């Protein structure tokens, strides 16, 4: 009886741990560090001006707003919002999240701000900017 009870308790503990590790839409929306770069559209979408996004097309993840993910086609021609069930963005994020250690999962942007030893010496920017007069950094450039 005792070995069986131990087995049941171990199973319950593992099942509870697995459920606790599941990434939810709300947590994903509130943690930009977990956003996947790309996801896939589930069904074809048509927009004004005859623009379309094909079913199965890979699109770039731009932002999350409540119960919607903002996306952009790889060519940048179409930007649009999609509901959770219209893409695989949550499944892609959950797969990446499942591969992280508990320590990696706990690492958030606010935590990085507090730990200067985690700051990179150089970064690659996504939008051009001017540091000071005469000192510009173009998009895609490594700046220090």
Topology (SSEs and partners):
Elements: H1 2-20, H2 25-30, E1 38-40, E2 45-46, E3 52-53, E4 58-65, E5 68-73, E6 79-82, H3 89-98, H4 102-105, H5 109-114, E7 123-124, E8 129-132, E9 135-137, E10 142-143
Task: Give a written overview of the molecule.
This protein has 144 residues and is of the alpha+beta class. The chain is built from five helices and ten strands. The strands form four sheets. Strands 1-4-5-6 form a four-stranded antiparallel beta sheet. Strand 4 and strand 5 (68-73) form a beta hairpin.
Features:
single chain, 144 residues, alpha+beta, SH3 type barrels, 4-stranded antiparallel β-sheet, two-stranded antiparallel ribbon, flat
CATH architecture term of the largest domain: Roll
Q: CATH homologous superfamily of the largest domain - what is it?
A: SH3 Domains
Overall helicity: 25-40%
The biggest beta sheet is recorded as: 4 strands, antiparallel
Strand share of the residues?
25-35%
In short, what is this structure?
This protein has 144 residues and is of the alpha+beta class.
